[in-house]
Amino acid sequence: MVNIKPSPRPVICFRPIRPSDLGILEKIHTDLFPIRYESEFFQNVVNGRDIVSWAAVDRNQPDGQSDVLIGFVTARIVLAKESEVGDMLSYDSLKSDQTLVYILTLGVVEAYRNLGIASSLIREVIKYASTVPTCRAVYLHVISYNNPAIHLYNKMSFRCVRRLQGFYLINGQHYDSYLFVYYVNGGRSPCSPLEIATAVLRCMKNAFKAMSARFWRNEDRKLKWPKSRESRCLVSTSQSRRNLTAECTRCECV
């Protein structure tokens, strides 16, 4: 187990993980996670092979330990169309280059917890994802019983979009996982049921307004129509009277 005592006044800084961090990185992962990672994973992390990473160090540590890892986050860029959250993301499917950033692991040694280091590491990932023009979201999995992590992601405005049954297999036992997403660069989720209902109500309201306007226009026409017929009748009657008078006059003259 990694035994690092915090300095009286920690000065936390962040830097990329380097090959010299390999040993301590493996030890912290072993201490923090019930899942065992392959050696290849750690080699990819420290050498930056398709994985981006950030290390947290305490510059105020004495005895040459000012560059020793006390926290870390690792992540990978994946294509949106090939990810498990593709259906939870509203994006242009015609653009095949749309990407996501998937957080692989995040951890802080016990002595340095509750100092905001995990939140700062996550913000580093979000900041990085925001600089990738094709990236639309940051996402990750959290085992269902990890309440502190769930609270952290909720506090940081991640959205829990799904619960995956039996996602983890640890010591022969299955555990559920929550899927969290943080949207960046205009990324967003597909319409929620509430948004769909709101859109339907808006359409119904607009349709009702259009029908009402059409109804009242028809009523106005109906009201004007009898007046028009009445005027025609009056003209016709007067003309008939004139014709009748003329005929009578002619008869009298005869």
Largest sheet composition: 7 strands, mixed
Helix content: 40-55%
* Domain tally: 1
% residues in beta strands: 25-35%
Structural class: alpha+beta
CATH superfamily: Gcn5-related N-acetyltransferase (GNAT)
**What Rg is obtained from the alpha carbons, in whole angstroms?**
37 Å
- CATH architecture type: 3-Layer(aba) Sandwich
List the uncertain runs.
227-254
CATH topology: Aminopeptidase
Order of helices and strands: EHHEEEHEHEEH
The helix tally amounts to 5
Overall CATH class? Alpha Beta
Catalytic activity: N-terminal L-methionyl-[transmembrane protein] + acetyl-CoA = N-terminal N(alpha)-acetyl-L-methionyl-[transmembrane protein] + CoA + H(+); L-lysyl-[protein] + acetyl-CoA = N(6)-acetyl-L-lysyl-[protein] + CoA + H(+)
Organism: Parasponia andersonii (Sponia andersonii)
EC number: 2.3.1.259, 2.3.1.48
GO molecular function, one term: histone acetyltransferase activity
